[in-house]
Amino acid sequence: MIVSRLVHICTLVVSLVVGLDVLDYVDPLIGTANGGHVFPGATLPFGMAKAVADTTRDNQGGFASDSSKVTGFSHVHDSGTGGAASLGNFPLFPQDCPELTKCAWESSKRASNWTNATARPGYFGIELDNGIRAEMTVTNHTALYRFEFANSTNPLILVDLIDLPISRSKGFAAVDSSTGRMTGNGTFSPSFGIGHYNLYFCADFQGAEIHGTGAWQKENASTIKSNISVAGEGSGGVFVRFKKPATDSRTVITARVGISFISIQKACHYGEEEQPGFDLKETVGAAEMAWRAKLGVVSVNTAGASDGLLKSFWSGLYRAMISPQDYTGENPLWDSDEPYYDSFYCIWDSYRAAHPLLTLVDPLSQSRMIRSLVDIYRNEDYLPDCRMSLCKGYTQGGSNADVLMTEAYLKRIPDIDWDTAFEAVVKDAEVEPANWDVEGRGGLNSWKTLGYIPKNNNDTLGTGLKTRSVSRTVEYAYNDFCIAILAKALGHDSDHKKYRQRASNWQNLYNSNQTSSIGNVKTNFTGFLQPRLANGAWAYQDPILCSPLLDFTGCYLTDTGHETYEGSAWMYTFYVPQDMAALIKTLGGSKEFVSRLDFLHESGLLYMGDEQAFLPVYQYHYAGRPALSARRAHSYIPSQFNTSVSGIPGNDDSGAMGSFLVLSMIGLWPIHGQDVYLINPPFFKEVSIRNGITGKLATIRNVNFDASYRNIFIQSVRRDGAKWTKNWIGHDFFLEGGILEIILGERESTWGSKHEDFPPSMSL
Ligand SMILES: *[C@@H]1O[C@H](CO)[C@@H](O)[C@H](O)[C@H]1NC(C)=O
Ligand SMILES: *[C@@H]1O[C@H](CO)[C@@H](O)[C@H](O)[C@H]1NC(C)=O
Ligand SMILES: *[C@@H]1O[C@H](CO)[C@@H](O)[C@H](O)[C@H]1NC(C)=O
Ligand SMILES: *[C@@H]1O[C@H](CO)[C@@H](O)[C@H](O)[C@H]1NC(C)=O
Ligand SMILES: *[C@@H]1O[C@H](CO)[C@@H](O)[C@H](O)[C@H]1NC(C)=O
Ligand SMILES: *[C@@H]1O[C@H](CO)[C@@H](O)[C@H](O)[C@H]1NC(C)=O
Ligand SMILES: *[C@@H]1O[C@H](CO)[C@@H](O)[C@H](O)[C@H]1NC(C)=O
Ligand SMILES: *[C@@H]1O[C@H](CO)[C@@H](O)[C@H](O)[C@H]1NC(C)=O
Ligand SMILES: *[C@@H]1O[C@H](CO)[C@@H](O)[C@H](O)[C@H]1NC(C)=O
Ligand SMILES: *[C@@H]1O[C@H](CO)[C@@H](O)[C@H](O)[C@H]1NC(C)=O
Ligand SMILES: *[C@@H]1O[C@H](CO)[C@@H](O)[C@H](O)[C@H]1NC(C)=O
Q: By alpha-carbon position, which residue is closest to atom 4 of ligand 10?
């Protein structure tokens, strides 16, 4: 057990402007259409219970604004996932039906059109066409629903033992005929991984007398039975019928649902402990307080900024703190005093912006998450690259938890067992797992001997998808760079040398003669990453393949045969965050590099809805052209990130898109895995962040701020009054606090254009 030495500070709740509530600027419905897959329901920050109305179609996050029917109300969800729908187990469904044969049971039969969905932090409300208005909120482990039956004679509430992906293998539910308490369990599969998990629930009701109870399956129901076992696919569960109150045409029934991954007893206990009063209003109030405290570490001078940008900003920050979920005390897999977080969904997405943002705004939660990752390594032998529902998720590229470890070290995240963390990242780099589709890396023999993953890799150490040799090579190279940095910091000098060398392996797949055409038109650029065979001969993949311009979706995980993952070789050629100086040299110098980066953004080759697109927005800094990074950021915000329900360009992936937005608008872009923030002007006159460890306040202030964004070019910078010429800054700014003043003008200046002011590169 690690003894906490955290400095506890009072959380300062900063309101935007006197009289305004920051929660008014959070719209949880942003990103609930058009593939954003955002969870818009009620949740506490990183909470396990997540209540929402589940819809048909595109229901990865439970509710989708562009789907017309609600099938139930369920208690746990994931947010923004790209794979299958996730969780959504044991939905309740209320209806009014005079006889059991008139009730609708199965999900396809009971599905009801909806109107008037309302979402706020800690609250979700909706009206169903079946005459029921539903409102809901949560504590950490319980969901609370208030169902108002408009003019009901025979209110009935059923529970269905299904989940959203229809993954259940076995399930059981029982109902107590005197109290109406429903309890049950089920065995389900994770939405983007292997194995299975058990979940338990306990539902209690208040508001009307029990009229009867029973069990149902498919479309038949019986009041004689008080329990039911289901196996395989298909609906089934138990139900409670209520008496109509004598005095009122309305019936209001409150349902409290405790959930647990351990047992029914624990699920019931959570209900009794966390939600003794069935009090919706009070519980919403408590959730709002929790959110205000989390969001309150950031404050914004709103002068001139549009409501739309403010909403985008606060909603993005809110989404970044929905997941990963704190399941501490709810892990049945091993005994440990360490925190247990789940739904790292996936680190491949979240290491680029989401975790760097949490490091800034909630370093204590980041510490608990890193401890949880190290504890997963202790107990499951590898760090995860993706994890959900207590199961191992699929690896998409490198072992990117390595990047998180190094960044946490450099940014002084407290209370981590660094020796074990180092052991874990070295294991990723050295020991191939039996199934590298769910942890570690594949092709390690080739990696160590050839210095790249060959297209025709002959892997005798483990099994896994034999694809993505190019994107895995560049990610493994960056992972090894991060391991080298951690090795150096911890005094492991020979390891430092070894991994530093491997960090240059991206060069082994750079084919300097490769050209690229779009249709019949040759682009003006030569030299791209290309696949290579084990014997050293070059193979070929069209550099634009799997960009929006050619077979866009051809490089998804389940497709076979291609050498890049969810993106083109054109784009992956830019992925050398460890040594941008060497990359720029390789690509023909600064001028060539800038024109190539412009082409990436302007030709339609880049899809902003996937996380690899984030870094190229800001890579102009490495060519001494920070002005172009600022201009590029404004070209995507708000045109591709806005406040509509389809206001994010791709899956939010546990808040990754929201994190890109927030970090871009704060103005300091973190290079994941490094102690480097690239300096850009904030989108607001001023932004401040109070550090959760030191309590110090860091303020980034625009001078000559212009809300129409003509003055977005940095003329000069002052840190605490002194001239600051580097176009980047370290995390000490946030730990120590201070003021970074950014003097703006209408034209690009020479600020940040000298070599000595460039961000660090390995070869410099
Ligand atoms: C439900 O909504 C769909 C789509 O808007 C519509 O076609 C259908 O008629 C509606 N059903 C009912 C019963 O109102
Ligand atoms: C929609 O919901 C809001 C909040 O619950 C409520 O104030 C409003 O009256 C509802 N509107 C309609 C048309 O039902
Ligand atoms: C919910 O859990 C978090 C830890 O993730 C904890 O800080 C918070 O106090 C809990 N909330 C309540 C109301 O217990
Ligand atoms: C309530 O339902 C009853 C029976 O279906 C019906 O006669 C009555 O008109 C309804 N009242 C309202 C206000 O909808
Ligand atoms: C679910 O409950 C039933 C009945 O008590 C029991 O037989 C079954 O083993 C339980 N399943 C799990 C996964 O706990
Ligand atoms: C529904 O009907 C099936 C087959 O007729 C029967 O096996 C099952 O027990 C029934 N379920 C309930 C809940 O009555
Ligand atoms: C299910 O109900 C039957 C009676 O209908 C009872 O005999 C049995 O013990 C119950 N099973 C469980 C696991 O509660
Ligand atoms: C793969 O490697 C093993 C062990 O070195 C060797 O026996 C086998 O022939 C190789 N297969 C191919 C297709 O190269
Ligand atoms: C590129 O072409 C030149 C001239 O044909 C050749 O010498 C060189 O080896 C080639 N480079 C690569 C990486 O294939
Ligand atoms: C290549 O460069 C030439 C000369 O600058 C220019 O005219 C042409 O449009 C460029 N081609 C493409 C595809 O951008
Ligand atoms: C809002 O963002 C979406 C998703 O990127 C985009 O399709 C849409 O055009 C944007 N809307 C506006 C008005 O900019």
A: 524
Torsion of CA 626, 628, 634, 639, to 10 degrees: -140
Surface-to-core class of residue 493, CB atoms within 10 Å of its CB (0-12 exposed, 13-18 middle, 19+ buried): exposed
**Burial environment of residue 494 by CB neighbours within 10 A (0 to 12, 13 to 18, 19 or more):** exposed
Sign of CA dihedral 190, 43, 307, 616: negative
Ligand nearest the Cα atom of residue 466: 8
- Ligand closest in space to the Cα of 282: 3
| Ligand 7, atom 1, residue with closest C-alpha | 227
d(CA 380, CA 389) in angstroms, rounded, equals 15
Summary mean pLDDT of the chain: 95
Does ligand 9 lie within 6 Å of residue 515's CB atom?
A: no
DSSP class of residue 554 equals T
CA of 327 to the centre of ligand 3 (A): 11
Query: For residue range 592-617, what is the model confidence (pLDDT) as tens digits?
Result: 999 999 999 999 999 999 999 999 99
For ligand 5, the distance from its centroid to the CA atom of residue 141, given in whole angstroms, is: 20
- If you count DSSP H runs as helices and E runs as strands, how many of each does the chain have, helices first? 19, 32
Task: Pick the residue whose CA is nearest to atom 1 on ligand 8.
Answer: 458
Q: Whose CA is nearest to atom 12 of ligand 8?
A: 458
The reply to whether the predicted model has a pTM over 0.70 is yes
Distance 449 CA to ligand 8 centre (A): 15
Does ligand 10 lie within 6 Å of residue 246's CB atom?
Answer: no
Helix-, strand-, coil-residue percentages of the chain, each rounded to 5: 30, 25, 50
Q: Separation of 125 CA from ligand 1 center, angstroms? A: 20
Beta bridge pairs of residue 325: 342
Structure confidence by residue, pLDDT tens digits, 257-279 = 999 999 999 999 999 999 999 99
Side chain identity, residue 205: F
For ligand 11, whether the C-beta of 336 sits within 6 Å is no
Cα-to-centroid distance, 125 and ligand 2 (Å): 9
HSE (CB half, 13 Å, CA atoms) of 484? 17
Is 340 in contact with 312 (CB distance < 8 Å)?
Answer: no
Cα separation, 736 vs 409, in Å, equals 17
Average pLDDT rounded to a whole number, residues 123-136: 97
> 458: Cβ below 6 Å to ligand 8?
yes
- The residue behind tokens 């369920």 is 74
Report whether residue 48 contacts ligand 3, using a CB cutoff of 6 Å. no
User: Poorest-confidence range of 5-9, 238-242, 429-433, 486-490?
Assistant: 5-9
For residues 655 and 360, give the distance between their C-alpha atoms in angstroms, rounded to a whole number: 15
Q: Is the CB of 512 under 6 A from ligand 9?
A: yes
Tokens of 205: 């009701």
Pairing of strands 387-388, 341-342: unpaired
* Other Cβ atoms within 10 Å of 218 Cβ, number: 12
Residue with the bigger pLDDT between 468 and 18: it is: 468
Domains and CATH numbers, the chain: 1-30+297-325+579-764 (3.30.2080.10), 40-291 (2.70.98.10)
Q: Distances from the Cα of 689 to the Cαs of 134, 311, 363, in angstroms? A: 37, 18, 12
* CA–centroid distance, residue 312 to ligand 2 (Å): 24
For ligand 1, atom 14, which residue shows the shortest CA distance? 113
- Mention every residue, 6+ apart, whose C-beta is less than 8 A from residue 647: 30, 31, 36, 312, 641
Does ligand 8 have an atom closer than 6 angstroms to the CB of 560? no
> Under the phi-then-psi rule, with left for phi > 0, alpha for psi from -120 to 50, and beta for the rest, what region is 608?
alpha
Distances (CA, A) of 268 to 93, 135, 275, 638: 20, 21, 10, 45
